[in-house]
Design a protein that fits this description.
The chain has 179 residues and is mostly helical. It has 7 helices and no strands.
Length: 179
């Protein structure tokens, strides 16, 4: 179980780094476009299209890393009603199972979308004529990474339950807001 958790967490860390690199590349594209237009009265033609692809990569590759780091927005109303740490962990397990199911479906659907593009050889309508299967592969890959991270989080919660390492969680949101 620990090996699976470490493996998935390392994959999420790696793609979190790739997500950050995609942000930097997107900013570089935009800066290059600004310079080309300002200094040379020209354009790169691909900036809008490729920054869109990079934005998708940033979002989808960052999802699993953000889940691992507990950075997603949480609706803690039900969490605050459940008073015992064991009950909160069981609630988390239920949420991880729901997230897993949802992202497994999203992975399947986005893979079908990618596969249809791959088999038809569709290209973008932009000047670059990009083979759309390449950027569309980001969709099932990112969704699959999120599905794997839900498995990792589920296993971490099960491990907590088995070992009895159920710490009393402080209300992080209230502390952050100074309440």
């Amino acid at each position: 179980m620990d090996k699976v958790i470490r493996f998935v967490d390392k994959i999420s860390d790696f793609f979190g780094l790739i997500s950050g690199i995609a942000i930097v590349l997107g900013a570089a594209f935009i800066l290059a476009e600004i310079l080309a237009r300002s200094l040379f009265n020209s354009t790169l033609y691909i900036t809008y299209e490729y920054t869109g692809y990079l934005m998708v990569a940033t979002t989808l590759f960052g999802l699993a890393y953000t889940l691992k780091e507990k950075g997603h927005i949480r609706l803690s109303l039900i969490h605050s009603v459940v008073k015992t740490p064991k009950g909160r962990t069981i609630l988390d397990i239920f949420a991880f199972i729901c997230g897993f199911i949802i992202f497994a479906i999203i992975t399947y659907a986005t893979f079908e979308f990618f596969w249809n593009t791959y088999t038809s050889g569709t290209r973008s309508m932009q000047i670059s004529r990009t083979y759309l299967a390449i950027p569309q592969f980001l969709l099932p890959l990112g969704s699959f990474l999120m599905t794997l991270q839900f498995v990792s989080e589920f296993l971490k919660a099960i491990k907590k339950l088995k070992k009895g390492e159920l710490e009393v969680e402080s209300d992080v949101e209230s502390e952050a807001l100074g309440r």
